[in-house]
Design goal:
single chain; 200 residues; alpha+beta; Immunoglobulin-like; 6-stranded mixed beta sheet
Length: 200
């Protein structure tokens, strides 16, 4: 058998069958499903989001009244109220601290060194603490955990002008002490207390 005869007897590979065209309704159906999923994502994202343009511009939060005369929104704690002990208990202000020093250091020798940072604010304070579940005391009244006052819409408002001693305490850590003076002539509306507690 010659090469030409062998070439003629070899089977030709079968050609692939042509694919069936996709029905015309499939592409629009896929597009509708994608549009519905995108709309659902936008709706749920706007609905459950904390800070949106609508909540910040259309409905601004009212500023709490100073002085604790009971004219706040129902169910909201009065300025300075403790989140730990319910009821009408807000710390009383001490006399305003005078001077311009930001930090006061005391102790040494055989005793421990203590440091007190001082701040001034017109209205209140935010607290960023490590650990964030450290307890915050204002003039020896427990007001709550530090993480309850770490956002601009969750600040601690001072009930009246004057100075407040802030203690941040956590088990197994050394406490830190700050003095914040609430005064109408302070430069800042809010002060941010940054506390990184050292382990004992």
């Amino acid at each position: 058998m010659s090469d030409e005869e062998r070439a003629g007897t070899e089977q030709q590979p079968d050609a692939e069958p042509e694919a069936m065209p996709m029905p015309r309704w499939v592409a629009p159906a896929i597009g509708l499903v994608l549009v519905a999923m995108a709309a659902l994502a936008v709706y749920t994202g706007l609905r459950f989001r904390q800070n949106t343009l609508a909540t910040n511009v259309a409905r601004p939060k009212p500023q709490p009244a100073r002085g604790g005369d009971g004219d706040g929104p129902p169910g909201e704690p009065e300025p300075g109220a403790s989140l730990v002990y319910p009821g009408d208990n807000a710390p009383t202000a001490s006399a305003p601290v005078a001077g311009h020093a930001r930090t006061e250091i005391a102790g040494g020798g055989t005793g421990p060194i203590t440091m007190v940072s001082r701040y001034w604010a017109r209205r209140g304070m935010m607290i960023h603490a490590v650990p964030d579940d450290a307890m915050v005391y204002v003039n020896d009244l427990a007001i709550g955990e530090a993480k309850q006052f770490n956002k601009p819409d969750e600040v601690y408002d001072f009930p009246q002008p004057g100075s407040y001693t802030i203690r941040i305490v956590a088990p197994g850590y050394r406490e830190q002490v700050y003095v914040v003076t609430a005064a109408d002539n302070a430069k800042a509306e809010l002060v941010t207390v940054e506390a990184k507690l050292a382990k004992e």
